[in-house]
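for the writeup, i need someone to sanity check this before i put it in the appendix. the sequnce is what the collaborator sent (i think, or maybe the updated version? ugh). structure was predicted straight from it, no edits. if anything looks off just tell me and ill rerun, i have time this weekend
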Amino acid sequence: MAQVPAAGRDQGGVNLQGLADRAAIADAVANWGLWRDTGRWELLRSLYTPDAIMHTTWFVGPASEFIDRSIEAAKRAGARGQHFVGASSIELNGDRAIAETRMVLLLRAPLQGVEVDVTCHCRAHDRFVRDQGTWRIQVRENIYEKDRLDPVDPSASVRLDPTELQRYPYGYRHLAYVQASGGARVTPDLPVPVSDALARLYADAARWLQLSK
């Protein structure tokens, strides 16, 4: 008698549901970058749960408010950002998942009358939940690895205040410097490599993931 594959598995023992879940989560992460950068705001909203929380260098709070403030910022001339999304590592447990994704944030903004580019290497850390059959972000935090600042015109120069620069964590100090110069209130103590904030993030996320049923 032929054996019937277990639910969600093919005859080779591959977990088809797991593959589908991972693909859906990776797709959501990729869409976040494109929809955020191109101003597709309602599509961006659809990626979050109603109670979702965002953590960034300039904002911590409800994702809905993050999008509203992003819309207002997009209407003003000034800083312009792009997000390049890389590979994701995804952990699944029932209707919960954690996705950690390599990302590069490119910010172009004025500083001291000079147009500059900030390049920030980070990792998006997303807590996903299955909401009415769709994977959505419940919490997004970023782990900031390193950044740098360059004048767009190579013949131009800017002079950074070293004391001010040292106020910010290593992983996002140039980004924070430029954002603060534009009037943003920079979030302190965000996760960076080998930091207490990163250890807390990983520990809290691991506990949260294990609560899945």
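Residues 1-7 have pLDDT under 50 and may be disordered. The chain has one domain: 16-210.
thx in advance!!
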